[in-house]
Amino acid sequence: MTKLLIKNIGTMVSGDISNPLLNADALMIEGGLIQAIGKEKELDDRGIEQVMDVGGMTVTPGLIDSHCHPVLGDFTPRQKMLDFIESSLHGGVTTAISAGEVHLPGRPKDVAGTKALAILAAKSFAGARPAGVKVLGGSVILEPGLQEKDFEELAREGVRVVAEIGLGGVKSPKEAAPMVKWAKKYEMVVMMHTGGTSIPGSATVSADDVIATDPDIVSHINGGPTAVSLAEAEKLVRKTSLTLEIVHCGNSKMIVDVMKIIKEVKAYPRIIIGNDAPSGTGVIPLGILRVINFLASLCGVKAEEAIAMATGNTAKVYRLNRGVIEVGKEADLIIMDTPMGSVGKDALSAIEAGDIPGIAAVLIDGQMKIGVSRNTPPPNRKIISGNA
């Protein structure tokens, strides 16, 4: 395995909300994992084969889209678009988590069919990464009639997530709560739709519905796309310890209002960021970056904290070995800079000024998947790569 040194890092964002900036200017990667982090002059450089000099740019973990609606492969029938996942890679997304393959034409709604779809999608995305992006696919959509043995089978076959409850035929807490207990027993992570009806056949979900069902994640607390009232959202923030998801394809005003409460109760570790796309809103390759910008420029969140909400916070709730720059973690990384013409002096100050940073490279498992992004503005500086 090639041993890579990334050096001359101006700012290293950890992805850990409790310690979002690292006092380091270099890291080493081998075998797809981060092997060492620190000051370049203090690292053991024996065996280094490749060197990437990033010229003072910012390095962050790869972004994790906590709310994606794929089907199979890199095609969305909702928007009749190819390569939307590959396009999100150019927005820094290295992992996408399915909130349910709900847009499949003719989606089966019986027990056998909903299980088959989840297992097929989970195995398909595990076997083929679109453009290298890691897709946690095959989130099972809850339908009436599912029993504990079905969740045992699903987990055994690689299904790790319950799609946002409310999209399928199971809508009431009375029906959903026993299924949630079974899913958690088999170590699945459970999402729940929150807010107004999103598509025909889905449900309007209140704060009390969520509390009674007891999922792991309050999907799109700012609406998907229609939000609950601020009083309802406040109840979920103050009266529960649930993970709270903010999405791009939601209510922007609600982000501002909810974040005031979240800041007051010091709930930053509970916030994760998703796109909620493809959807009726469309496909938004820069959606996660745009939410990071929104939080950092309009909601008083530090840029490095907002990045942690889109990386380490999400990795923690989904038990993923990535999302944080730490020894032993998967080397999914973004190299970014202030974009040309920005008032920002580096990527973080540009984000806090409201500018999309310029992505200079995205790595997955230590392998460079793209250089300068075709979707962000160009970075101010350049990477110099070569052999050691």
Could you walk me through the main structural features you see in this protein, from its secondary elements to its overall organization?
- Helices cover 27% and strands 23% of the residues.
- By secondary structure, it is α/β, with parallel strands linked by helices.
- The protein folds into 2 domains: 3-61 and 325-387, Roll (Urease, subunit C, domain 1), CATH 2.30.40; 63-285, TIM Barrel (Alpha-Beta Barrel), CATH 3.20.20.140.
- The strands form 5 sheets. Strands 3-2-7-18-19-20 form a 6-stranded mixed beta sheet. A 5-stranded mixed beta sheet has the order 5-4-1-6-21, with no helix packed on it.
- Helix 4 (173-185) packs across helix 5, helix 6 (230-239) runs parallel beside helix 7 and helix 8 packs across helix 9 (303-309).
- The longest helix is centred in the N-terminal third of the chain and has 17 residues, at 111-127.
- The chain starts with a strand and ends with a strand.
- The model has no long low-confidence stretch (mean pLDDT 96).
